[in-house]
Amino acid sequence: MTNKNTIEIYQTNDGKTCVDVYFEQNTVWLTQGQIVELFDKNKRTISEHIRNIFKEGELQEDSVVRQSRITAADGKSYNVNHYNLDVIISVGYRVKSQQGTQFRIWATERLREYLVQGYALNQQRFDQNAAELQQAIALIRKAAQAPDINATTGRGLVEIVSRYTQTFLWLQRYDEGLLNDPQGQTGGDLPTPEIAMQALQQLKQALMARGEATALFAHPREDGLSAIFGNLNQSVFGESAYPTIESKAAHLLYFVVKNHPFSDGNKRSGAFLFVDFLHRNQRLLNERGEPVINDTGLAALTLLVAESDAKQKETLIRLIMHMLARPCTTPLN
Fold it and tell me: Where in this chain does the record put each Fido domain (predicted)?
């Protein structure tokens, strides 16, 4: 059973008494007034039994009592003690109530159902995440066999699979789905296609000066780049389709590499625009002033995107997002 709050209605066998039962933290909680109603005893009797339970050391008060603020019929809010199933059972034995026995059986059965359902859901989530992890590792293994890979990029791939596996295990330890999108940082300002092209032209001139690119590098194919930025800026029902910096960055890299908006140099252009976007949004450096991704890691990520199958897009996007998401501040290298 999770810590998610649940309220169920308990009705006695004779149908005369109905109590709203509050489930949380693998137990049930009732107020003193509800216990009075459940056992059909006066408030003084129930108060005396609860007091004696703690006085005799049968239960430790701080572990079985919690205080909650409720709004009464007069509209005012009051702090009210809630007692868990251990207290309710103890009171039931002391008042020798048949209704107490019936309630204990009912509550225990409900708790067992929640535990079984919770285990089944967690196991299903784990199996799904494990399958996605295997897909990611298979993708990395395929990329590692690419003919143009070198030792430096290979080290980047090793670091990626290590970081990804650590992320999976860490999140699973806290019962979180690995491939759920990380919370991320809301926002992220995208440059216009024109500003992006100006930055790419500066990169092109530098590369050509070193003999590392030709005139075809970053040469636009129709309106491919504008279409990508238009896609990243779109909204759905008034909300951004890519609401976080991590999401925009990951999709920007993916779309440029996979959609080939340029005649040549799509991988290098995608990697450059990815870093440029992070820099524009003050996310290229972590909290210690270190780059979140260096040349080796960037080359490895870009190669993963290039070698990936279209049906692996979501796995790859989330992989990149988890690499960028805080508090994961270890540089990817």
Answer: 195-322
